[in-house]
Specification:
- The chain is an alpha/beta fold and 541 residues long.
- It has four domains: 3-54 and 155-239, Trna Endonuclease, Chain: A, domain 1 (3-Layer(aba) Sandwich), CATH 3.40.1350; 58-150, no CATH class; 272-385 and 461-541, no CATH class; 388-449, no CATH class.
- Helices cover 61% and strands 10% of the residues.
- It is elongated, with a radius of gyration of 31 Å.
- It starts with a helix and ends in a 5-residue tail after the last helix.
Length: 541
């Protein structure tokens, strides 16, 4: 999202929350290019947008990273394993030969990474790569290569915020004098490194005595999920408050001496419950997106295998038979063969190509099972189509349960195992449209919540821990969502669906191309079989 998109969504948020007729009236920055100007005027508000980098020079460093090794996985074909590559945040630097680094890493992945055992490795001696890499390999997961960076510690954020906000305040000053309510809209898109509480803490450190000069309100825009931007009004947390203990001439207690009254605890509980509710909505939405994509990908694979996969299996079998006959011909060429020789050749072929034969057989079984599952889905859709209200209830129930029983919310190893089992069961129930099973687990969750007893102080402590766990869950879910969207099956599904919108059937075209290739390979195989028969003559096994 660009700056103006964020501002437009923010004004939409204001319109839905107390300002029903508000519209953006002007973009002052477009009208005056000679002096610094604010971004927008909307109703009573003068709005200035700013993006805050979590780390110093974050955007510059991210650009360097992308030029050097970012997105390298999309340039690699025929990878048969999953590889995650991590480097230190500042390893990519100006003055390095980024194209040489990129090519060296691609060469290493293709030629060396396949030899690594599964698990974590630290690699320090790749030619032309001036830094070490940490890799995690999985041979049992869909093939892909992902690259990322470890975030370094950085305590400069408050000072950088202060410098940035002072400059923004100067632009807002004249509008405040004219009677406008000045709004500083602070944006961050980095879900992994930032959340609303950490941003608030950094701003409070930058401005311990209240709001910046000429700023009436500070709002935070979390754009980590572009289609679900969240806004937080920080104003009440930052306004200046008189220190009552100073006015009364009494000593303010040290932090360790401060205890909260019951009403204060209840107020904090309400505040933390509100924060948790917002994050739960985000986590639930992510869980639902992930599960919907998984279901859609499974259905697409079934459709794909049903229409195209069988042709691929047939083509792979033909190509394998061609390789086998080429091998037979190479061994038999120029020799006077006996029956024992023929048996020896067949034994050699069996040993040489046994692994490839198993691979083709596995592909055939996978294609067959996916096609059958897709046929069952079509049959169910035809006989028992899901009504809109039923689908909505199914989604609502899954959203709540997926968060309630997420394994990262477990308190100990025993509960982790329990939650993993339930989590898998609710995912399967959602996939099958089994609302009764979801209701059963919802009743279980509600029963456990009624049993739990805790004091207000215990509840407050638990809520704070729950919030931290939620942030971790959101980070993992976002990473999983990005991984799914980077999957080659998902990309193909999207490509097929876009083509369909334009009146094209890519799977039909692909099937036709495969049939043509099959026919060509069959002719080639027939020629090799005839050639081998000529070589062996009348010799029999």
């Amino acid at each position: 999202m660009d700056d103006r998109d964020v501002i437009k969504v923010f004004v939409d948020h204001l319109r839905a929350n107390g300002y029903p007729s508000i519209e953006i009236e002007r973009w002052p920055e477009d009208e005056n290019r000679n002096t610094p100007e604010i971004d927008a005027l909307a109703g009573p508000f003068a709005i200035e947008h700013t993006s805050v980098d979590i780390l110093s020079n974050q955007r510059r460093d991210s650009d360097w990273f992308m030029q050097a090794i970012g997105g390298i996985g999309s340039e690699l074909k025929d990878i048969t394993f999953r590889l995650r590559i991590w480097i230190e945040y500042e390893d990519v630097a100006k003055g390095q030969n980024w194209s040489k680094i990129r090519q060296a890493l691609k060469t290493w992945i293709v030629s060396e990474a396949s030899r690594l055992t599964d698990g974590r490795h630290v690699i320090e001696d790749i030619a032309h790569v001036p830094f070490r890499i940490c890799v995690i390999k999985h041979s049992d997961r869909p093939p892909a290569v992902h690259v990322g960076r470890f975030a370094p510690p950085d305590d400069t954020l408050p000072s950088r915020i202060h410098t940035l906000f002072e400059r923004k305040g100067q632009k807002l000053a004249k509008y405040r004098k004219s009677g406008k309510i000045t709004v500083l809209l602070v944006e961050n898109y980095d879900l992994a490194l930032m959340n609303d509480q950490d941003m608030l803490k950094a701003i409070q450190e930058a401005y311990p005595n209240g709001l910046p000069e000429s700023v009436d309100k500070i709002w935070y825009a979390d754009t980590s999920i572009p289609d679900k931007v969240e806004f937080y009004n920080y104003t009440s947390e930052l306004v200046r408050k008189e220190d009552c203990s100073t006015l009364l001439g009494t000593k303010k207690p040290a932090k360790s001496e401060i205890t909260l009254s019951t009403s204060q605890v209840e107020q904090e509980i309400l505040a933390w419950e509100a924060r948790i509710s917002e994050k739960e909505d985000k986590a639930s939405d992510l869980s639902l997106q992930i599960q919907d994509i998984k279901v859609a990908m499974n259905l697409f694979l079934g459709k794909y295998y049903s229409r195209v996969g069988t042709f691929y299996v047939k083509l792979d079998k033909l190509k394998l038979r061609i390789k086998e006959y080429e091998h037979r011909i190479d061994v038999a060429k120029g020799r006077k063969l006996t029956s024992e020789d023929l048996e020896s050749i067949e034994t050699e072929v069996d040993e040489t190509f046994s692994q490839e034969r198993r691979k083709v057989d596995d592909l055939e079984n996978e294609a067959s099972e996916s096609a059958k599952e897709y046929d069952r889905y079509l049959e169910q859709e035809e006989t028992q189509p899901l009504e809109v209200e039923f689908q909505q209830e199914l989604k609502r129930m899954y959203r709540r349960l997926a968060l309630k029983f997420h394994p990262d919310k477990a308190k100990d190893e025993k509960q982790v195992r329990k939650f993993q089992k339930i989590f898998a069961a609710i995912a399967e129930a959602y996939k099958k449209g089994d609302l009764e099973t979801l209701k059963k687990y919802m009743k279980q969750a509600e029963r456990e919540e009624r049993i739990a007893k805790e004091t207000p102080q215990e509840k407050l402590a638990r809520l704070k821990n729950d919030y931290e766990r939620l942030l971790g869950i959101i980070t993992k879910l976002q990473a999983e969502l990005e991984e799914l969207r980077a999957d080659e099956t998902y990309k193909l599904k999207e490509k097929v669906e876009r083509a369909k919108e334009n009146g094209k059937d890519l799977l039909k075209k692909l099937a036709a191309d495969l049939e043509e290739e099959i026919a060509e390979n069959q002719v080639r195989l027939d020629g090799l079989v005839a050639k081998y028969k000529d070589l062996i003559g009348d010799v029999t096994y």
